[in-house]
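Format notes (please read before filing issues)

Several people have asked whether sequences and structure tokens are stored in separate files. They are not. Every record keeps both together, in the order shown below: the sequence lines, then the token lines. Line labels are part of the format and must not be stripped during preprocessing.
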Amino acid sequence: MLFFNWQEAARRKTRLLLVLMVLAVIFLSALTVLMLALFEELQRHQGIDALLSSPGLLLTHFTPEQFARVFMGVALVVGVGSAYRIASLSEGGYRIAESLGGRAVRADTDDFYERRLLNVVEEMALASGCSVPGVFVLDNEHGINAFAAGHDLDDAVIAVTRGTLEQLSRDELEGVIAHEFSHIVHGDMRLNIRLMGVVFGITMLAQLGRILLQFGNGARHNLDRNKKDAVPFALFGLGLLLVGFIGGLLASAIRAAISRTREYLADASAVQYTRNTEGIANALKRIGGYELSSHLINPRAAEVSHMLFGAGSLFSMLDLFPSHPTLDERIKRLEPGWKGGYLPERNPLERMTEQMQSRARPQAGSSLHASLAATAAMLASRDLAQPLVAEQQRKTSDTMTTMGAPTEAQHNFARTWLQRLPAPLYQAAHASQQAPLLLLAMLLPADETESQRLIGQLAIPLSDRNDLQQLHAGLVRLADSDRLALAEIALPTLRDSTPNLRQHLLTQVHTLVMADGKVSLFEWALTLMVQHQVDQLDKRRTISSGHRQISQTRNDIHTLLATLCHFSAMHSDDQQAAYNQALQLMRLPPQPLPARASLEQLQGAIRHCGRLLPLAKQKLLQACCQCIEFDGRVNQQEAQALRIIALLCGCPIPPLIYDAVDQQDIRYQPPA
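Then the structure lines:
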């Protein structure tokens, strides 16, 4: 599975980054020793003539003790600087986007370009199996650029400039967003943040030198008796500034060594995502023909240039070793026959025509109640088990091979699903007031009398109860798989709520789930999704406390595999056999099938298994597949349980597409 190989490659690059950082510290320490030696000899001989006549004097200062002291000092400055910068980005992509002047796009926005952007991001998220990331717009930036940032899949954001929104067509925008999604699934985001920390730490020497130089210059303008004492500070600061400048060059070289090849991979992955070479190629051509190109005016552009879709600044000390290949090189990789020539800037008439031709979704001001009533009538004749979109897919393990690289069928599935989703439900999923009610409505039973009784037990205002009834009427005949996909779209809207409102929603979810004293697979899945989203938003748990081996998560693995067996349609004997076969794949000894785990136990197991090393996580998901495929028959519930577990463990499984003739089960012949 390429996804896990990419994740492992990102871990190897992180180790390479650490090695390069240590080498940079050693080199800068040697320069600092040389600078101190020069400074000391100048003070001793009161001039440079003696040094010119005896240059070997400087080498006498390169003693192990002196180098060790300097190395510790330089390592302390670089280490503290790196740790400080990484800690300042502990909130992940949101902090980075906001530091560049980004504004979070509200899910219920009525801006044409922002709605188109949200639609493209949601389509890409559904096709790839990722959680829908936060979306930001850099309103003051009119160059064509974008970036993805965050620590992991759960706190990822995608930010685009205003120029990207207005200058690119939908196909070109899809190419750019697909490029950024590839950075998300390849594990590049966490590496980018660590790279920012390393670059910041290395350039801290220059900052320290500048402070000492300013202090020395300031002291020389005070009383005469301070002038002589101030000169050493100024000279030492000037020396550190020079060492820091060289450190900046090293940081730029390190960044280029880590980043350049990833851009080619992301461009190629964008083509694989969209099956449209012209989309991303034309976006690059549009940058080349646009007056503002991809440049950003924000002074932090140079620091984050390795994260951007295109070059972010005209010139910087950190850009002497570019982190991106040239536009021509990238275009020729995509279109080998390209003869040159860029695309011109789009004029206002083109953009106006595009808006008029677009078939936009209903706006927040439209009548939700009337639309939901019509939706309920439309769905009334549908089979409850029939998803909105269905195509043939043989095995869950087949789908897992496309993790991080969705097929054309899965991309078409996501686009068609969004188009066929009833507009009022899509509208409600994006409205900050309606989305929490939509999640609650999904948990109400089909029986109208029972659903009204449960609504009466909820601690919500009367007006919300009426809205909840309307939403329930629109959802009642929607398949569980469609409800979960709709929930994935609605969950990011919780970012617009306060922590108290999110906790209140979670309490109401538990009230509905436990109302009948038992938990269905759908209730289990939706509760875990809501709990996971609330935890991420309120605790901002973005920095993992370390990776784990299979031996460290043995009990958690038992819990996950047993849960899948319990939710299967297999006989108890087959459940036990499937469980032991999965344990054998994990190289764990067989044991009796444990009892059903509680939601709290399952949530803890998912959290711990999410910290497994990439290749160990791959083996776990293979064991999960083997569990539900044991009897040669995988139903929708089993497949959706697998997908939710994988999603919450940070492994994006693309949509599981079902055969239109047999919506309940996916049948296949076991391999010989």
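For reference, the curators noted about this record: The radius of gyration is 29 Å. The longest helix spans residues 224-274.
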